[in-house]
Amino acid sequence: MMFDASILLSALLNGLTTGAVYALIALGLTLIYGVLHIINFAHGASLMMALYGVYALKERWGVDPYVALPFMVPAMFVLGYGMQRLIINRASHGKDENILLVTLGLSIVMENLALLFFKSDTRTIDTAYTLSTVAIGPEAVQVMVSLPKLVAFAGALVVSALLIVILQRTDLGRAIRAVAKEKQGARLMGIDVEHVYAMCFGLGLACLGAAACFLLPAYYVNPQVGNGFVLVAFTVVVLGGMGSFAGALLGGLLIGVVESFGGLFLGESLGQVGIFVIFIAVLLLRPQGFFGAKA
Amino acid sequence: MNKLFKDLISIGLFVCLIAMIPIFTSSGVTLNFVMMALFACLIAQAWNVLGGFGGQFSFGHALFFGTGAYFQAIAQISWGWNPWVALPCAMLTAGLVGAWVGALSFRYGLKGSYFALVTLAFAEVFRIVSLSVPFTGAGVGLMLPLSESWTNMQFGSRAGFVWLVLGLVTLALCVTAYLRNSRFGAYLQAVRDNEDAARAVGVNPFHVKTWATVLSGALMGSAGAFYVQVFQYIDPSIGFGSHTSVEALVGAIVGGMGTLWGPVLGALALHVLADLTRNLFGQMPGINMVIYGAVLIVIVMFLPRGIAGLNAYLPKSWRRYD
Amino acid sequence: MTKPNALLEVQGVSRSFGGLKAVQNVSLEVPQGSLTALIGPNGAGKTTLFALLSGFLTPDTGQVVFKGQDITGQAPHLNAKLGMTRTFQIVQPFAAQTVRENIAVGAHLHTASREQALLMADKVAQRVGLADQLDKLASDLTVAGRKRLELARALATEPELLLLDEVLAGLNPQEIAEMIPVVRAIAASGVTVLMIEHVMQAVMSLAEHVWVLAQGQLIAQGSPSEVTRHPQVIEAYLGHGTAARLRQAEVSA
Predict the structure, then answer these.
(1) What are C229-242's pLDDT values in tens digits?
(2) Residue A294 pLDDT
(3) Which domain does B188 fall in, by range?
(4) Any idea what the CATH number is for the domain that residue C234 is in?
(5) C80, closest residue in chain B (CA to CA)
(6) Does any CB of chain C come closer than 8 Å to the CB of residue B181?
């Protein structure tokens, strides 16, 4: 099967742009894991909620997704803060297995509430730029890349950088890193651990708010969309290493590219299977991923 | 012998009582309710073997359900097998899938969330593959040709199906009783409660957890095969979709993990709740699951030992069971 | 060369974690039927050594020979089947199960019958003084009770070699005084016992032979009285120069 260079380049760029969004989604997940040490099974459903939020803003009030950013991000932050502080923290009584079940329960509730209100149809939005493309590459191998996807790529990288800056340069970031390393010690130093946990969760979901704004113009939403993303996000996190930002970024890009090429050579659905096979293989053979600490 | 005897007696009573229902009523509505309630019990009990007694939470139990269902369908449609022969083989196949997934996961020491993730991933893989492959009917699924007769496991009335699923539920109950009164069960629960301590006194955790996955998978597979016989249809989302995985685990947790009657109680409670909701709110897609999810959260928050755990709050003289 | 009555031989066993040398070239022989002790300051590597002997950790170098068989790195459950059972420094009960059920898990090593295992659990509970708490949940026991449970569960496996890791830790003097005869009785019944212990009173009154571990190395061995007078041992516990100071104090007293 000979594909000419422009098709391959197209697949690569497609993969990178999608991968950047995967990375953004995975960043939130890995932050939550790295600090709270919980695997947030509600991550995919939360993304789905965010996507519906962006959708509703556009369809009801004509708010452009990119313009919606300053609203969606804080809104998702508040949702995340509330979820952790009011539900997950209360329900889990500190036991890991309970947290597992509670986040699962939340994801079930969210997904099916969406089903209830929006029905199961797949929805997309129309904007002026949905179909715009940009030419990339030298004359010989020029490829058209969709504009929304390019914006998604740039946006994802910017938000990721922001997140890293927050963690490295602000007081909150220092508190988060302290709690992640040594919870009891941090508590003894006067850090409100419950608050930090909730802030973390909020940040993780805020990433999803941003991701949703970048995703919707180029993608679609239905109640099940969370499922697809959550497993990909998990794959990225596990591949890159739980709790590693570099891992989430690189892993996201890698998975995006793998999916793109997999789809090219195997057809879309089997390409997806490729991702899960990688996921299972990493879980079994190297659960700490490439950059993570040993589990 | 005392405890086992008590368990078997209570199972016997339960079976006799339920078995009499189709004799005393031919109301389609009632029998359908009983049949679906028992079906819910079966999947909850299957999950309970690995989740409740083994302490390994599977989030992708539909993997085994779909395997059993597809085997039952394909055996009849493609190979012309008799369904009564296909059923135990479907269970065996689901059990083998359990052995494979279990051996892989436990060989590499997967626990807790990681194990839950892996089971989820496996279920998704099977779903996508069955969606893409003509052997399983791809997206269209498989339809069992109508051919009503007892020998063909297609009973004219619901009564036959009620007795069939009751038989499977009885099997699951007996397996559970075995777990409560045997060395294997003691070892399994020891590994659940403290794997290192169990190893120190001679328990092989890998061996025990993998066998539990086999048993759990086989029972779940029987539910899948049963489903195909009743509804004569199976497709990737019914077979391997998360709906079944969730129903199984919520039923067991709400009722009380690691107990004999917990999953039965939990499944029944949820089934009644679902029915009530349908009567109150009509056929709203997704409302059931919203309730299941909410109940799961509430139970974990306030009643982690489930309905069966309420036993502990009764005065000692009222308590009959553990 | 194997001494004819050495039940357990440890030959040059070492284990490191990253840069930390937890156990360095430890060799010892545990005679059959003896009651011996392993002592040393905190962090000396005693529990790590137990983990290496029982198979919870694999040595980087060296051999562990039990009943003449090389069991180096063999899984714990296989060692239990051979006759070596260990207890844990921080007790590890099956919290959701009753005392009887806990002990029965150990008893099942030699019987597949549930009935037999439960009966055996009753008997073993009597030996350690837990007979009146058989129906209690393990999580409802006091620390002393849990220590006895830990002991009972290990005993139920009918071990030839019992590795007790600080079975007296966390007990008050009364409870210690009650526990010592239990341990002695176990040894008297033919079980070879190797105990890690900090409670010196117990070591002095129970142990025939003592090994002293400090910073992963074996620094002394001998009878309890010999070992406690050994200057290096005193230094290890009380700090550099203490041995000399004590001697001076003795002289001037």
Answers:
(1) 888 888 887 777 67
(2) 47
(3) 2-241
(4) 3.40.50.300
(5) B202
(6) yes
